[in-house]
Each structure stands twice: as structure tokens, then as C-alpha cells.
Design a protein that fits this description.
- By secondary structure, the protein is of the alpha/beta class.
- Helix content is 25%, strand content 21%.
- The chain starts with a strand and ends with a helix.
């Protein structure tokens, strides 16, 4: 049986200690940028800029290249990150930029494999596709290598590795599965006694994968060298791979000179190029060649393109022929008037190619993405037996009102047919008690109707954040000459009035059996106990294990801020008041607050219920708009799958026309 070895050191010192030309295959998943805190100085992944993170890894992997035998192969798995930005956050393309600069540094990039996670983490993201895959880059130092041998014998092999995320009992929040290690190494016809390296060992998955291969593949006798700095992970690896402490050498930190990277730039075109637009809502275009695709990129940089589409339009472009340079050049659109929200991977038979979801880089308009039109059904029944859940004692948090307060659920008054509470009694921290409506899912709230205030005709299109629209019957210009009238569901209004009027107003709070607030993590001693928030990542299991479930107060209806802004603006003009005059009627500390109510960009806000009531007297706000804005209910804050179906994710496996599928994402 081959030897499993740990080097207890930082990655650079560990790599420098290895003999050159001694490693047959390397496989690793380094710390992702800005995702984890591993608790030691000099760690990779906590750099202020992602460019510094890439520079460090390029420098470190240059040393690794010297350690590979001539035919050696390096599998690099790394996940992406959304960059912080006011307005719309762009996809960072960090893995692909790293691969691009590694290639420029002398590596040969033989392939880009896709690790698709069938049991990927669910996501509450609504304005883009959720993450379901990570790339695995295949690097080598020579064109005659073990992976090239594999490709020559399997030229039509799928580039997609469908491998489930593997749960482990170890306190490590970024574990890739043993099966991924075994699958990748099985692609290579490695000789007897080959040495496998993992320079970022983490919890020792690579070592355990090598042990599994040795047990399954007789006569291979693989050895594994793992490098890890974190003391806690060293102990995990010892236990997982059965390594005695005396066999773990410790190396001191070694300073090393980092070679910086120079991000490239693209210049906007000075002349217009023709490009076919689906309609003013945007573009869906998949082309067969890289040259055709670069024409699309050039067209997006022409002066007139943004005059032909709405600033809230949605763009999908892709190429069935691609390489790392194409992906890198596309990423540069993030700095040239656009924001890339997704890099979709489309598996069309045996062809895999990228499609990029791109939106205008402005801070005023949200883009027209309709997730509900592309949701897919859950494979399994994810219904929770709500009848078995005791909600008495659940905390209620009110961040909607200006005078924020907390409460606790005293009892359930009425349930939905599935057992979820519909009306609950809440005792607030000021001693008052009220009956509160509970929102189970957004689709349980009857949609309000909008009609023309002049002719009372129904309005299918009642608001556009950019353009004026007319009543189709009387042709009155909405939001200029008038504004729609809002009609609520009559049965719901009657129910709300009935329950609210039966509040326990006369009960002395001392006579009420006060429920003790429940905390979900009371007595929890699992592997995520006391974990830093940054280390929980997006794991629903991690978050649901230690985060409390509670009810929050939110608006009953999905009130669109830009529509309320236009309504207030029109009422202001009808009253003949300036924004300054309105501000002067509020206390001095409102000097910056009032202006946000009249902004339609991402800095806009809806007045709190208390402020709305003050505005109602100043601007004569209508009763229907007041009810629409002020009605509220409770929403359970928990980790659960949406009953509306799931986000299809950024890996699409289809046999039909991809353009037609993506067109459904348009509102």
C-alpha cells in the first residue's frame, strides 16, 4: 500500500521542500477568495483584491509545475465569487482569470471540465440562475501528458462530471467529494507507485480518495503527499487517513516574492456594428464560432447598442466554440458598461458551451428577469409536516415599522389546509397583543387588481419604470394625467378586518402565560457549533443548524418601489409642493430621508408605515394606495425549498433550442 503523508506547513514552504519531477498528478481545491477564514496569518483567500489572490496562486503553482514529472497533470478545482458593487453585483470570473494567467505563465491548459452537483445547495436568489457547478481545469507542463493520452483514446467523452456533494462529519465547510478525486485520477493511466499531491489538503479528501483507489485498483500502490497549514485540519487528516503524528514534519513559513498580474482592457468601438435584437427587452444569441462570438462582443461595445434596448433589458450570448481566452475577454465586459450575472453551462448532447447572462451597468433600473417562468419542479416531495411543528414561543421581529419591536408567538388561531399557521396571536415587547396574518408563500396572497381611475377598465399593464403607458380603453396617460386604482381581494380584506378587530386589547399582559422564545440551536453540539458566519458559506445545512427560525414582519403585497415613487411624485405635483417643501414638514433629521422616497434608482426607498401616514396628510394620499402599502403580515424565516419549484441553476442540460428556453426568462 502506498504511503499517505502530511507536510504541516504553508503551501509555498511545503512545495519547495519536494523534489523536482517527483509528482505524477496533483489535485486540489484551494481556499476560494473571500469565502473562508482559516484562522492563520498569511492564509490565501483573504486578500483585499482578487487580483492579489490570483497573483499568489500563479506564483505558488509555478513552483508546483516544477514538481510534476514530464507527463504529470494538475487538476485544479475552484469556485467563483460575486464581486461587491453598488447596484448589480458582477460575477468575478476568478477561476477563469486564474486559469488564463496560469496559461500565460507557462502552463498548458488541456481541458475545462465541469463538476455539476446534482444535490447542489438550494438558493433563494431570484434575479439570476443559482450556482450548481464548479470548473475543474486540467493543466500540464508538456503536450505529451497522461491526460492527453486519455483524450486520444476518448475523444468524445463528456466534459461534465455529475458528482454529488459529499457530507462529512468533519468541521470543514468546503469539502469536495472523494468520488471527484477518484474520478479525476481514474482518467489517467498512471504507472505503478505514482505520487499524488494535494497542496491545499483541507480535511484530507484527496488522501482518502487515493486510499479508496488503492483498495479498488489492485497493483497501483499510489502514494499521496498533502500540504496543510491549519492545525485543526491536520488533526482531521490524521483521523481520516490514519496517519501517526510522528510522520508529520513541520516546516516554518517561507517568505516568497509574488508575481503580479496585469489585467487587460478592451476599448469600445468607435463605429456601430449591426446586431439582431430580439426586441427592446433584450437579446438571445448563440453562435457557432469564436469569430462570430467576438463580433457580438464588439457589437455590445458600439455606441448605439444601448439606444436600441431598454436599460432594464436582459442579454444572453454564447458560443459553441470557446476557449479560456474567449471567457476571459467576455469577463472584461464587467468594466465596460455591462454586468455579467451568470456564466451558464449548456450541455447540448455531447457539446458543452458557455452562455453569458448580461445586463446594463446602471444603478437606476432592475433588469427584466422572470424566474417564475423558468422554475422547474422539485424531484422529491419537499413538503414539511407543519402540523407536527409547535410555533408557540417563536420570535417575531419587526423591522418594517420605524419603531421596531420584537414579539413572541403566544398561540395559533387558524391554520392553512397543510397545517402551516395562517393567523397567530403575538405578544409584543411593549405588552400589547395582536392577531397577525401569516404569509405561507407569496402565491397564497391574492393578487391585487389595477384598474383605470378614469374609466375603471382593467389594466394588464399598469406600470412601466421607464416609459409612460396608456389606458387601452380611454387612452389616458397613466402616471402623467392619472394613476391606476388598486382593488384588493374582498374576501381577504374581510378576513383581516374580522381578525384584527378581535385583538385581545383588554387582556392584562400579566394574565397571559408568556411563552419562552425558542432558539433552534439550544443544546446544539454539531460540527457547525461556534463556527464563524463567513465559514458557513451558502450551506443550508450549516445555516439551518445554528440559525434560529423566526417570523419577520413584512409587507403583505409585493410593493414595487419605483411605482410608489411615481405615485408620490405625481401627488406632489398635484399639490404644487416641492421636495424641499415636503422635507421642511418633517423633523430636521429627515433632511436626507425624504429625498429617497422620490428616487427611482437603487437608492430609493418606500416610506415606513409611520412616515406614510404623515405623508398621507401632506399629499392627500388615496385610501387604496395606503392600504396597499401598509398592510403587512408575518413571514417565517427559515431554510426550505420554495413550493413554486426550484431555480433551474446555471447548468442546463437540454436537447431543445437553447435560445427558446432562455427567452422564457424575459418578463
Amino acid at each position: 500500500m502506498g504511503q499517505i503523508k502530511i507536510i504541516h506547513s504553508d503551501v509555498y514552504a511545503g512545495l519547495k521542500s519536494l523534489p523536482n519531477n517527483s509528482i505524477h498528478a496533483a489535485i486540489t481545491s484551494p481556499p476560494y477568495w473571500g469565502q473562508r477564514d482559516y484562522g492563520f496569518e498569511g492564509q490565501i483567500g483573504n486578500e483585499e483584491k482578487y487580483q492579489d489572490y490570483i497573483s499568489k496562486l500563479v506564483t505558488v503553482f509555478r513552483v508546483l509545475r516544477d514538481k510534476l514529472v514530464e507527463k504529470g497533470v494538475f487538476f485544479l478545482n475552484i469556485g467563483d465569487k460575486y464581486l461587491p458593487k453598488y447596484g448589480k453585483s458582477p460575477l468575478g470570473f476568478i477561476p477563469y482569470k486564474l486559469a488564463y494567467f496560469m496559461k500565460k505563465d507557462g502552463w498548458r491548459l488541456d481541458d475545462i471540465l465541469i463538476w455539476y452537483k446534482p444535490n447542489h445547495m438550494p438558493s433563494s436568489i431570484r434575479n439570476r440562475f443559482s450556482n450548481t457547478y464548479e470548473p475543474v481545469f486540467v493543466f500540464s507542463k508538456s503536450d505529451t501528458n497522461y491526460y492527453a493520452d486519455y483524450l486520444s483514446q476518448n475523444p468524445n467523452q463528456s466534459k461534465v462530471l455529475k458528482i454529488n456533494v459529499q457530507p462529512t462529519p468533519y468541521k470543514h465547510m468546503a469539502v469536495y467529494p472523494e468520488r471527484l478525486v477518484e474520478t479525476l485520477l481514474s482518467l489517467l493511466n498512471l504507472p505503478y507507485g505514482s505520487v499524488i499531491l494535494d497542496p491545499f489538503a483541507g480535511s484530507g479528501t484527496t488522501g482518502k480518495g487515493v486510499m479508496n483507489l488503492n483498495n479498488r485498483l489492485e497493483g497501483k500502490n499510489f502514494s499521496c503527499v498533502m500540504i496543510e497549514r491549519c492545525d485543526e485540519y491536520i488533526r482531521i487528516i490524521q483521523d481520516r487517513c490514519n496517519i501517526k503524528k510522528m510522520n508529520i514534519p513541520f516546516l516554518p513559513f517561507v517568505e516568497y516574492q509574488i508575481t503580479g498580474i496585469n489585467e487587460e482592457s478592451i476599448n469600445p468601438n468607435t463605429k456601430d456594428l449591426s446586431i439582431e435584437i430580439l426586441d427592446e427587452r433584450g437579446l438571445v444569441k448563440i453562435v457557432p464560432t469564436k469569430n462570430d462570438y467576438y463580433t457580438l462582443i464588439d457589437a455590445l461595445l458600439t455606441p448605439s447598442i444601448k439606444k436600441r434596448i431598454r436599460p432594464d433589458a436582459l442579454i444572453f450570448i454564447g458560443s459553441k466554440d470557446f476557449d479560456i481566452e474567449l471567457i476571459y475577454r467576455t469577463s472584461l465586459l464587467n468594466d465596460n458598461g455591462w454586468v455579467i450575472r451568470n456564466m451558464l453551462i449548456v450541455n447540448e448532447g455531447k457539446r458543452v458551451f458557455p452562455v453569458f447572462m448580461i445586463v446594463d451597468d446602471n444603478k437606476k433600473y432592475e433588469y427584466l428577469f422572470n424566474l417564475d417562468r423558468i422554475r422547474i419542479p422539485h424531484k422529491n416531495n419537499n413538503d414539511i409536516n407543519w402540523q407536527e411543528r409547535n410555533f408557540i414561543g417563536y420570535k417575531v421581529v419587526d423591522k418594517l415599522h420605524k419603531n421596531q419591536k420584537n414579539g413572541v408567538v403566544l398561540g395559533v388561531i387558524e391554520n392553512y389546509p397543510n397545517g402551516f399557521p395562517k393567523w397567530v396571536k403575538v405578544r409584543w415587547d411593549n405588552g400589547s397583543i395582536s392577531n397577525e396574518f401569516v404569509i405561507y408563500d407569496d402565491n397564497t396572497i391574492p393578487n391585487v387588481k389595477f384598474i383605470c381611475r378614469i374609466c375603471e377598465s382593467p389594466l394588464v399593464r399598469y406600470f412601466d419604470p421607464i416609459n409612460l403607458i396608456d389606458c387601452p380603453n380611454c387612452h389616458t396617460k397613466l402616471w402623467q394625467d392619472t394613476y391606476p386604482k388598486i382593488i384588493e381581494d374582498e374576501s381577504l380584506v374581510k378576513e383581516i378586518i374580522a381578525y384584527k378587530s378581535s385583538d385581545m386589547e383588554n387582556i392584562n399582559s400579566s394574565d397571559v402565560n408568556v411563552a419562552t422564545m425558542k432558539k433552534k440551536n439550544d443544546g446544539y453540539n454539531g460540527k457547525f457549533k461556534d463556527a464563524k458566519k463567513i465559514n458557513l458559506g451558502a450551506s443550508p445545512g450549516a445555516r439551518s443548524s445554528i440559525q434560529d427560525e423566526y417570523f419577520s414582519v413584512r409587507r403583505l403585497y409585493d410593493v414595487e418601489q419605483k411605482m410608489i415613487c411615481d405615485y408620490l411624485e405625481l401627488k406632489r405635483k398635484l399639490k404644487g409642493l416641492s421636495k424641499k417643501a415636503i422635507t421642511e414638514r418633517f423633523p430636521k433629521d429627515y433632511v436626507h430621508t425624504v429625498g429617497h422616497w422620490f428616487r427611482k434608482d437603487f437608492g430609493g426607498s418606500i416610506p415606513t408605515p409611520e412616515d406614510w401616514l404623515l405623508l398621507r396628510n401632506i399629499l392627500n394620499l388615496d385610501a387604496d394606495f395606503t392600504d396597499y402599502v401598509l398592510r403587512n403580515g408575518l413571514k417565517l424565516q427559515t431554510v426550505k425549498a420554495s413550493s413554486n419549484g426550484k431555480n433551474p441553476g446555471d447548468y442546463l442540460e437540454i436537447e431543445e433550442n437553447i435560445e427558446g428556453v432562455l427567452t422564457n426568462a424575459f418578463k
